[in-house]
UniProtKB/TrEMBL annotation, chains A, B, C, D:
Belongs to the carbohydrate kinase PfkB family. Keywords: ATP-binding, Kinase, Nucleotide-binding, Transferase. CDD domains: KdgK (cd01166). Pathway: Polyol metabolism; myo-inositol degradation into acetyl-CoA; acetyl-CoA from myo-inositol: step 5/7. GO terms for molecular function: 5-dehydro-2-deoxygluconokinase activity; ATP binding. It comes from Peribacillus loiseleuriae. PANTHER family: 5-DEHYDRO-2-DEOXYGLUCONOKINASE (PTHR43085:SF49), HEXOKINASE FAMILY MEMBER (PTHR43085). It catalyses: 5-dehydro-2-deoxy-D-gluconate + ATP = 6-phospho-5-dehydro-2-deoxy-D-gluconate + ADP + H(+). The keyword Transferase applies. This is 5-dehydro-2-deoxygluconokinase. Catalyzes the phosphorylation of 5-dehydro-2-deoxy-D-gluconate (2-deoxy-5-keto-D-gluconate or DKG) to 6-phospho-5-dehydro-2-deoxy-D-gluconate (DKGP). Residues 12-313 form the Carbohydrate kinase PfkB domain. The keyword Signal does not apply.
Length: 330, 330, 330, 330
């Protein structure tokens, strides 16, 4: 089964939300206290998805807010360099800084992130900085959940969703839950539900859907039944190594397996999944194929050091899929 | 034309939002600088509507947050005294104060309010303090727009609206726009639109609908056409002395005239209008009749000193309507 | 023993700090919940002292910040009306409100105050709004402790104390401790100690000196020994109905008795005490006489309804002193 | 001329204030946008001075607040590793992060710092976390000005200064002005003046003394005349490449020349100066010699990559001084 997009649009995808800096441990397999050098990369879920999509050949744009300093300028230059339209990335004039994520890789199983998210520039995107003229040029508006965690970014995203729906732009909601800056579990649930109900496609891990429902051990069946009463037409629920499930409003269910490769760290898996999955959908692939693209892209990124730089090409993804298919048929 | 409600419910109406203190000038027709004495009344749009409704015989409840002091206790006692269920009025434990409104009546045409709304208790109602078991016992959930102006009250109201819709409780949205605590005109528009689209009935002045649309000089026709694409079934737009208009999704339009009486001050007109209009609707009256009830109730309250204490009885309303009808037919 | 002031100055006293609104229960001897009417007066310790001093004939000025609304204008008009120079009372342009104190008089022994002190205008006085040219025209700078409770008012007062010392203006520190807006007991102690050490005269209750020392059950002897190592030359410690004690750096101690009169409420006792005590000192009276003035003025104010309006004249004070002296000699 | 310290104390120096992380550009002589790798060092003026002093053989302690994460633990481990007593470094339990300083070295003359100082842990040190029992064990309390920039750290430092003076611990005030988190130039001046007047030794650049005086182009003579009316006995004013001046209360003035070496970057010059200058004073050297120690230490640190790791040994300092003396005598 395929998923249809508006074809006559300048952009395949416009992402909205945070674009930050990852500072990845150069010396890893140790506690961060013993890491003395860090490498700088662009990070942040929607930025990574835009970068991943752009590398795969999608025409991507970005709506976000950047600090007025060296880190903000680096992000803009890097994203422009990989082909993303940055004309709607606004420079913050109130002194807010770029968000930072120091990554700690003790072992492939023990990864953690030390976040600097206090009053960061991306959360100060204002609704007046979101423009209908821009959004209506895209097939897809990609919304990441973290941009809902605080005002005024929250209202900027709610406005963007409104404009997307008004202009027949598909809203893809990547739950991307991060336990920072949210006021309460109840408030998180209120906004996640609000946007999920208005989205066309919702993508997240089972844990993230539980956050949306403010519960534990939720069941996919209940989740999709509730959401399909509203706008969503396609819902992807990821279960880690157990693979992912795609549900359609028409009642179909597809399962995608996880590809097991050498894992360096777990960061970036979700973003690379989303970018390749959406690339395949937009390219007119079947949902089953799109699930494979997502899994393959995630498998490649977790074997490498960064999240953004490591985003694979179509060729790399297809090679991995074909290699895995051969294994499966032996 | 009549409007149908779920009849098997314990409460006719549950209002959510602020319950505050009005301090009304005892010596009026002068600047507040020359007023040396103030009378204390319960105030706040949803509290006034609940009080007005209760006086008209509706079974009313209230969801809100009260300061843990003499003003908070006065409000609870007064509202309980007029027959409102106050079991879901929570006591604030973080030191927030009751909102205050000092009224200045220079002349019937020059009224102003000096507001104390900084960190007031009512805006600290949390989503966890809103309970499905309570809301589902009512025919109506009355939401006033000011409760959307700040977190966590904003999320508490969004949750309440969600629960109302889930349990077939009609959502009445009284726009009640107050230019305090809102972050920006754009943010105001985002939340007003969000709730208006989910409401069953929307009531406000033309100016308030303009705030919702973040524009000036909006036209009723456009406003109702946009909202009728979503949940609303009935929209009431008030034009001051020019009367009010009720629009139904089925395409009907009714006009209610304003009753011109002796005006002492303009405060309380909207709240008394809403309580009597809703009373008539719930009582099974035609929409045309409900419009008359609203106008009559407003006319009575603006001729008196307070907003809450002055809420009329059914008898007073019907006497005024009949008096005005006779005039009209002469 | 007398206390000497610089005689060649335009003002006897310039007070710095808060000028607010008292809303006093018209119906009293009951809980505030049952009070339905409130009378408006100017309030706030340094404002009361300036008003009291002005009524006694002192030439007074005031440095403070007023809300840009009816309450702010009322305060300025009232203070100007009683003869105070208000040229250095700045109008707040950032929307801060006037502080409010609703008084509850359950009985003469059970008085309480419901305070509105959240982000009030007086605490937003900035150091740049304190001018050396003004302060150096006065014999006395009266500082009240509450103005130290928050930035930027805190820094404005520290600057004013600096300028007073530089220009040989006596610094009178009225401890005036109010448990609002202070961050911690330790921080309170830090700033109270800092200013007390730089002051020439320190006045407060025993409890307030304990707050300054961040301890309980402090002894006057220790308190004065510590302070006399620094600038203070005269320290007055009040012990309620047990009277007050004045200590001089030269080692003298004077005791003033409390005059027992009909008490309506306890508010305003400290401010009226300070204004009359300072009036007597400035007028060249002996310290023993000044203690009597303070006690008499306090006794008069606690028998009346307000704190500012009730400030007595010299004649009233002297009549009470002479009446009490006769009683004592009978 | 020598400067005397209390000799019977466990610690030579206890520093109070910030201990942070420097992230120094590995690839330098370019804009930070082009720097892809950063090295991690302990930073922050008082931490650097304590580290520098400890490397020179002083017995040092530190009072500060650390984030409860990998960065906080790294700082504590590093400082303990160089011999500093860290028993009074408190772990923050409210989620505040370690301050960060990303350094950009475009050229030796064009260095800048990208600071992360928003709600950092060091500014949350509370007065209750400053203990008399600890401070009284030291010869010196070193206070750095930045710790005064925000509450509650501000009050913690004011308390520490109080306790130092009470216990005959010399207060050394390193102005260390950083234009972050301060509310206003006036407020900065208020607190800098307050502590400078209470200090025994004040050290800063001419620009920093101008900040203290809230003026531009101040003159050393006026500065020292004003401060010598209060506690200070020794004042060091640094004029960059023009050398530094030491003034004593007794009226002496000493000039120290700057040693011109190969400069990699300008960071760390002030901290290395202070640590070596204080080391010399405590070791009983003449003030002239102490000025040489300061200059030599600064010259060594600016030629190296870090501020803390690069702190020299006594031998390195003495070699440079003797090398420079020989040059001068040729």
């Amino acid at each position: 089964m395929k998923y249809e997009f508006n074809t006559e649009r300048k952009y395949d995808i416009i992402a909205i939300g945070r674009a930050c800096i990852d500072l990845n441990a150069v010396e890893y397999n140790r506690p961060m206290e013993d890491t003395m050098t860090f490498s700088k990369y662009v990070g942040g879920s929607p930025a990574n998805i835009a970068i991943g999509g752009s590398k795969l050949g999608l025409k991507a744009g970005f709506i976000g807010k950047l600090s007025d300093d060296q880190h903000g300028r680096f992000i803009e230059q890097y994203m422009r360099g990989v082909g993303i339209d940055t004309s709607n990335m606004v420079i913050d004039k109130e002194g807010h800084k770029t968000g930072l994520a120091f990554t700690e890789i003790k072992s492939p199983e023990e990864c953690s992130i030390l976040m600097y998210r206090e009053d960061v520039a991306d959360l100060y995107l204002k609704p007046s900085e979101v423009h209908e003229d821009y959004i209506k040029q895209s097939k897809i508006l990609l919304v990441s959940g973290t941009a809902l965690s605080k005002s005024p970014s929250r209202e900027a995203v709610l406005k963007a969703v409104n404009l997307a729906k008004k202009n027949d732009v598909k809203v893809i909601f990547e739950l991307d839950y991060r336990p920072y800056t949210w006021e309460s579990a109840e408030a998180t649930s209120v906004y996640y539900s609000l946007v999920a109900k208005q989205a066309d496609v919702v993508i997240g891990t089972r844990d993230e859907f539980d956050v949306m429902e403010n519960r534990t051990e939720g069941q996919n069946e209940n989740t999709v039944n509730n959401l399909f009463k509203h706008s969503p037409e396609l819902i992807v629920i990821k279960h880690g190594v157990d693979g992912s499930y795609a549900y359609t409003k028409s009642g179909q269910m597809f399962r995608g397996q996880a590809y097991l490769t050498k894992v360096l760290k777990t960061f970036g898996a979700g973003d690379s999944y989303a970018s390749a999955f959406l690339y395949a959908l937009i390219s007119g692939e079947e949902i089953e194929t799109a699930l494979k693209y997502g899994s393959a892209s995630a498998a490649i990124v977790v074997s490498k050091h960064s999240s953004s730089e490591a985003m694979p090409t179509v060729e790399e993804i297809e090679q991995l899929i074909s290699r895995e298919s051969e294994k499966a048929t032996i």
